[in-house]
Amino acid sequence: MSDARNLLDTINKLANTVNTTTNPDAFFSSFDEMIEKLTKLSKYNRKIFNQGTSPEEDLKKILQSKDKTTEVFIDRCYNSVSVKDKYYLIGKYVDRLSDENRKHFENNLDKLDSISAEAMASSEKGLDEKLMQAIDVIFEIGQASVSTLQRRLKLGYSAAAKLIDQMEQLGIVGPFEGSMPRRILMDRTQYLAMSFNIAKPQETLQKHYDSMDGHEFERFCANLLKKNGYMKTEVTKGSGDHGADVLAEKDGVTYVIQCKRYDSNIGNKAVQEVFTAKTIFKRHIGIVLTNQYFTKAAKEAAEQTGVLLWDRDKLEEMVAKA
């Protein structure tokens, strides 16, 4: 009986968090834990509770209303004052959203235009090269401080402090806390998702996609496809994807895309993998998308299999249209 009461108390606290928080970590972790606790509670006899519904009924209602609860959270997140929370959802939790939630989320991105413009007002050309270098530094070493930027970028105090202030305006780092380094409020993937909504020169994006890891590049490509009119874009789970990194659709044609962020040209192995993935995922067209170019063997394999090869030139073209 006491165990059941403790579970019920925990569930009530978790439900309060789910219904009030504007922090994506807190929302999704609390929701998952609430489902877990309700599942355990459903094993107890209903008669021990002085309430109108059973744990089984509550669990069913919560699961049925999950999309609506998430939609309310998204709206609450956008109405909060934290720019960080608005963008954070994109990079870390977009795969948790249903198609309906994702559409609602993407429609709300337009609300951030004025915030992004205001954050960029301090730079005539948007995110200038020094700021991009500074952002790379803090993600690389995991620390955001004026002294760090002074050492790594060989800057004076005023210039380094200005860069830190710009990162705070963008929601990348937290506020001043005395002698302590600034808290870093997002990781590189979340920053890249955020930066997609800020107008910037093409060369800035080039610099970043060349420094991404494989998974970051996959997310980058998925967002890029969306910006170029592709629908139902989805980053696959990773292991067991059979060479499929991103799934997409446009004008009734379905695509499977393998994304290769390499430092050298791409060989025919990638072509063979995406050709196989096209069959497994029942897609009309297979594509290999890379930040580099393709070897002669890759081009020959693509001609034989019908796989499309999108090289760096195509990637830059898509970036320019985004």
Please, could you describe this protein's structure?
The protein is an alpha/beta fold and 322 residues long. The radius of gyration is 23 Å and the shape is flat. β4 (285-290), α15 (296-305) and β5 form a beta-alpha-beta unit. The protein has helices at residues 2-20, 24-41, 55-64, 66-79, 83-93, 99-108, 113-119, 129-141, 146-153, 157-169, 188-195, 202-211, 214-227, 268-280, 296-305, 312-321; strands at 231-235, 246-250, 253-260, 285-290, 308-310. The protein has 3 domains: 2-110, no CATH class; 115-205, Winged helix-like DNA-binding domain superfamily/Winged helix DNA-binding domain (Arc Repressor Mutant, subunit A), CATH 1.10.10; 213-321, Trna Endonuclease, Chain: A, domain 1 (3-Layer(aba) Sandwich). 33% of the residues are buried.
Largest sheet: 5 strands, mixed
Q: Please give the domain count.
A: 3
**What's the SSE pattern?**
HHHHHHHHHHHHHEEEHEHEH
Shape by Cα distribution:
flat
Radius of gyration: 23 Å
Q: Count helical runs.
A: 16
Structural class computed from helices and strand pairing: alpha/beta
* Tally of DSSP β-strands: 5
Distance between the termini: 58 Å
Low-confidence stretches: 81-88, 110-126, 197-207
- Averaged pLDDT: 77
Helix-residue proportion: 55-70%
Spatial strand arrangement across the major sheet: 1-2-3-4-5
